[in-house]
Design a protein that fits this description.
Blueprint: H1 3-15, E1 22-25, H2 32-43, E2 46-51, H3 57-61, E3 63-66, E4 76-79, E5 89-95, H4 102-114, E6 116-117, E7 120-121, E8 125-132, H5 146-149, E9 153-156, H6 161-170, H7 175-183, H8 201-212, H9 218-221, H10 223-234, H11 242-246, H12 259-272, H13 276-289, H14 292-308, H15 312-320, H16 323-329
Parallel strand pairs: 1-8, 1-9, 2-5, 5-8
Antiparallel strand pairs: 3-4, 6-7
Helix pairs in contact: 1-2, 6-7, 6-14, 7-12, 12-14, 13-14, 13-15
Length: about 350
């Protein structure tokens, strides 16, 4: 499933209190841990992210400490680690599970199966989920024991441009990167085993921070993707007058002929809209001068952009009062806009 589907699935698991252990499989950098964190945040749950591959068995089981003789000694008690929860409710996330050595996976299995390890008992209000990379992604993983694998419900996540754009718009990623990945979706995630840096949803967020600081992005997305991105960003100097279109003065603004510039223009209109009036003006210009596919792309991005600005109600009011929009959405029900 794609990231948006996974978010909905996990949210439903939490809402219905389905406390079975989940194993999320996916390539490095697709956003597994960030999605689980988002689920916890939306549900008002605590979130503990444990990188299992970085632990030794005693780190999870705890340390054996002998009791003093005057206290009935002669035995040792396991003192559990402080990072395991003692109360409340939340999601205990065992990340990089299959990168851990078999001995470590064995200790984790006790926590997953019995909800306890050593003297420690996981509180009833906690979910236990895990994640790992696949062998085909050239990750340094161990085979998961069949007994452990059989304790999980297994879910696989794949990168998806629309899901990435939705998340990126909500988190203020630059319109240049969003437009570029609309134009070149195959570069959202492309593992290059010969290079340390390659594009992934995670590295695109790092690229955004570097570009906003005036630094090149090749150190996080690789030289090839960075070169394409730089060339694309230069196209923004040739955009039509986006502000004129937003203000309703786009009657004489020509449509760009270059495909890449069309993508940049459409995304820019969606992300720069600051009112319902801007949305309607852009919609009219697009429907009058470009084909339906571009208008659909605009509406998809516009909805997320306006939601991130808290402008869903003005957007819905303006568009639903526009006769041409009502006619347009009759054929495209997925573009319905509500407050």
């Amino acid at each position: 499933m794609n990231p948006s589907d996974l978010l909905a699935y996990l949210s439903s698991v939490v809402a219905n209190e389905v406390r079975i252990s989940l194993m999320i499989w996916g390539a490095p950098g697709v956003g597994k841990s960030s999605i689980v964190s988002q689920v916890a945040q939306q549900a008002g749950l605590d979130f503990i992210d444990i990188r299992v591959s970085q632990l030794a068995p005693t780190d999870l089981r705890g340390l054996p400490v002998p009791e003093r003789l005057e206290e009935g000694g002669g035995v040792s008690r396991w003192y559990p680690p402080e990072f395991l929860p003692r109360n409340g409710s939340g999601i205990l996330f065992l990340d990089e599970l299959n990168m851990a050595a078999p001995s470590m996976q064995g200790v984790a299995q006790q926590l997953i199966l019995d909800r306890r390890v050593g003297n420690y008992q996981l509180p009833d209000g906690w979910f236990v989920w895990a994640a790992g990379n696949r062998k085909e992604d050239r990750a340094s993983v161990f085979d998961m024991p069949t007994a452990l694998a059989n304790r999980f419900a297994h879910i696989e996540i794949s990168p998806d441009v629309e899901s990435f754009k939705k998340y990126a718009i909500a988190h203020g990623v630059s319109e240049q990167i969003i437009a570029f990945l609309s134009f070149r979706p195959e570069l959202l995630h492309r593992i290059d085993p010969t290079q340390p840096a390659w594009p992934s949803p995670r590295s695109w967020f790092m690229a955004d921070r570097l570009l906003k600081a005036g630094l090149p992005a090749d150190s996080v997305i690789g030289a090839a993707a960075s070169a394409e991105l730089s060339a694309f960003i230069k196209l923004f100097e040739t955009l039509p007058d986006v502000e004129a279109i937003l203000e309703g003065n786009g009657k004489h603004v020509d449509v760009p002929t270059e495909l890449s510039v069309k993508y940049a223009t459409t995304v820019s209109l969606a992300l720069r809209a600051r009112s319902g009036e801007h949305a309607v003006n852009s919609f009219r210009w697009l429907t009058a001068k470009m084909t339906t596919e571009w208008t659909r792309t605009f509406i998809h991005d516009l909805r997320q952009s306006m939601q991130s600005k808290g402008l869903q109600a003005p957007l819905a009011t303006a568009l639903l009062a526009e006769p041409t929009f009502k006619a347009f959405v009759k054929d495209y029900h997925e573009l319905q806009v509500t407050a």
